[in-house]
Amino acid sequence: xxxxxxxxxxxxxxxxxxxxxxxxxxxxxxxxxxxxxxxxxxxxxxxxxxxxxxxxxxxxxxxxxxxxxxxxxxxxxxxxxxxxxxxxxxxxxxxxxxxxxxxxxxxxxxxxxxxxxxxxxxxxxxxxxxxxxxxxxxxxxxxxxxxxxxxxxxxxxxxxxxxxxxxxxxxxxxxxxxxxxxxxxxxxxxxxxxxxxxxxxxxxxxxxxxxxxxxxxx
Length: 218
Ligand SMILES: C[S@@+](CC[C@H](N)C(=O)[O-])C[C@H]1O[C@@H](n2cnc3c(N)ncnc32)[C@H](O)[C@@H]1O
Hints:
Radius of gyration: 17 Å
Distance between the termini: 50 Å
Shape: globular
Bound molecules: S-adenosylmethionine
CATH class: Alpha Beta
Helix content: 25-40%
């Protein structure tokens, strides 16, 4: 079994392209239907629990989850979404995610594509960036970060969650990408970090807290 999601078993490095070697993820899914142990590890269950607990709304209308992998977090997000749009580079991963998420019918769509090249049109109430941005180079991350404000509804939020430990295969660390997000014009509303992972939530601008929305405070 591989390490938790930040640390896959090193794969042979084919021809380099962009930020990760060509075929890196395809090779991983050719060896396993769950290369990071999303369905097995407590690390992953805990990460998902932290992620879901940090979301400030009980339900969202339109949600985008790039890098959805085999759809384990997606299945939890589907319970809180009217429409969930999942995307992943790997056709094997999206086939497995589509099977797992079929129970949600046309409320959930799963597409094979690249976060950078195939960013969807329109605005989202929630964008989930979980264990994804450190696969991009810094320039590409800046491009994604620039897109976020225009891709969110006025009340929309972005949650980013990344493994913090060093992975030699990856162009950036989790802290690198979170530092870029923190330095962006997005409004930082919540954060959590420990030795293993970092989680941050952003909105386009200031908005009422959960307690304010429920009239618990003035
Ligand atoms: C470590 S998994 C994360 C899965 C899930 N987000 C989670 O946290 O459980 C990373 C996934 O991102 C996908 N991925 C990597 N680069 C991508 C890109 N540029 N566009 C879309 N998906 C990408 C990989 O194929 C892989 O399935």
